[in-house]
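[Automated response] Your request has been received and processed.

Submitted sequence:
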Amino acid sequence: MFPTLLPTYNRADVAFVRGEGAYLFAEDGQRYLDFGAGIAVNALGHAHPKLVSALQEQAGKLWHTSNLYRVPGQEKLSKRLVESTFADTVFFTNSGVEAIECSIKMARRYHYANGHPERFRIISFEGAFHGRTLAAIAAGNQAKYLEGFGPKVEGFDQVPFGDLKALEAAIGPATAALLIEPVQGESGLRPATPEFLRALRNLCDEQGLLLIFDEVQTGVGRTGKFFAYEWTGVTPDIMAVAKGIGGGFPMGACLATERVARAMTAGSHASTFGGNPLAMAAGNATMDVVLAPGFFEHVQRMGNYLRQQLSGLVNEHPGVFEEMRGQGLMLGLKMKVPNTEFLDRLRAHHMLAVGAGDNVVRLLPPLIIDETHVREAMQILSAAATDFEKKKTEAA
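Generated structure:
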């Protein structure tokens, strides 16, 4: 019999029914240390009291009215995002890929409104992942995501990550914008250097292009600042945000400057559920926590502590780990053993992490972890590595 759930996921045989802080609890009551956070989504961990309270309060008042009317929660959250970022305006979505779609449309619309409808092409970078819609997989240009879905959506070009000369050669009369993740998550935690991002900004300014940052995974404190672009001194024209912004509730946002956004007039873009009262309650509660004094400093401390511990782990198990990568609490281990098998061993030891390209294991814990969680994670990582070393010795 064909499964009632469309079989597009290779799911692990475990179901979680409850969460608390940095832990998840399975149907059988077993507790797991969560260093995946729903792929960098549960920024405040599980069942954070402020989020629970905000959602319960809003659920008893109003769930949905549509964007045919003012939504006070949107007005509040957009103001906070504008005050805390480069942006002048915000469009709320339900997901990261919707924020990417809004970013692409906004870039094209900007040039159209300024008398250059021929400028519609977007340049992205090899290894990118921007989501699973037809436009997003065209922007990412990874064969495994494009296969079987017909002709690739027109309007996207791609160059090697970090290759400025290739980028300059790819820019033409039809180029509208550059689209980049400050740190490529899905392809193995590859950061763009500040120098490269500054070069992109300069190119855009010189040639009338727009710079789009995909901060779906890197945003909302994940790298130790509100958004990763703050580390570089480079500001985009448009930015796609999601994952951590709702603390686990489905929501995203497209942020932009006034200069770019002016072309997005009434009727040019819309979303039925985007910015609904429940999402806005979750988003505002998340902002209450992450924008509080000391929160980002805590993420930086925990990120530095975790990096130090991981460096030691790599040295202790050279046959299992090749190197440690990443920034803040967006860290990864490049493996010498299959990352899928290592993730299985971690889960057997009751810890969760996330795979990535280039045979990397991503560690994306909730941003509220403390040193005790890091020490527990190190014990489990070491135990999983030891399992592989024993297996190798037994096979010899």
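Summary generated for your ticket: The mean pLDDT is 96. The chain has two domains: 16-34+294-395, 49-290.
If you did not submit this request, please reply to this message.
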